[in-house]
Amino acid sequence: MDTRNWTKVTEFLLLGLSSHPEMQPIIFGVILSMYLVAVTGNTMLIIVAYTDPKLQAPMYFLLSQLSFIDILLATIVVPQMLVHTVTGFQAIPFKNCITQLFFFMAIGSMEGHLLAAMAYDRYVAICKPLCYSAIVTRSLCLHITLTSWVVVSLNSLLYSVLVAQLTFCGNQVTHFFCDITPLLRLSCTRPVVNEMLIFTEDAAIVISPFFFILASYIQIGAAIARLHSAAALKKAMSTCSSHILVVLLLYGSVIRMYLRPSSSYNLDQDRQVVIFYTVVTPTLNPMIYSLRNQEVKDALWRLWRKIQYSLTFTLTIPPFCFKEGVVVGVCLSALVAET
To answer: What is the pTM of this model?
Structure first.
């Protein structure tokens, strides 16, 4: 290829989720609705995991971290996409693009590590129930979380540096954010080092948690097969079913997207797959865990009752009952007597 035609790219143009202008209002409405549901649902899970006294087990600490990751993952991508859809301004500076790539890869990889930690939690709870409280502690979960953050951050930094050093033969990215696959396609030369890194590093950082989860559930399956109590079997299945569904949603799309050479990428189809685990999965995760976990459902119901009580209490007290922000005792007694 003639190197005289190579120019330094200072910004990229993100072409969005669809090339059809008439689809933009529909895309905006659907994505905005799902983003608001994802942020609201995951925020409520975080609140109940930290405030409800019955959800102080290590499993719910990990669940709150997963919800936090889902909020970050959607926020890295969706607000920028919505702004580009409304304004029609598609440019993103080169440095901002590389920064977005770094955070997206780090947070996306972190989700797999958290799911692996949750699989270990379920393994100990079912296979070694008598030792659970001694093995799985909040301190252990915190150490696993912090170590995973360091590992995925270093891995993403390596990816980002290598991509930033590529020479690009164009700046039109067939995507709605700066992902690694469309950026590699813009490289003037085949990015052999980057592709080798994707296969080797992904195997170590991204796919190894999947095999750890698989091994954990093989052990769990063997333990469940030995259970003779129908009640114990039902409890074990209900405990694991939510986690298994979330794992399938995440890794099904990730393996479909990244574990193949760049020459086989179909960017028009791939950006539709990516919307699944950047928007759809964060939206579904809180629903999956709240609908299939009775303890979480009860905690959310208790939180809703507290919110209702607080609103009712505030709206029922007349303004003259407040003196310097404090409810006067006579009015409070009258209110209690009425209720």
So the answer is: 0.82
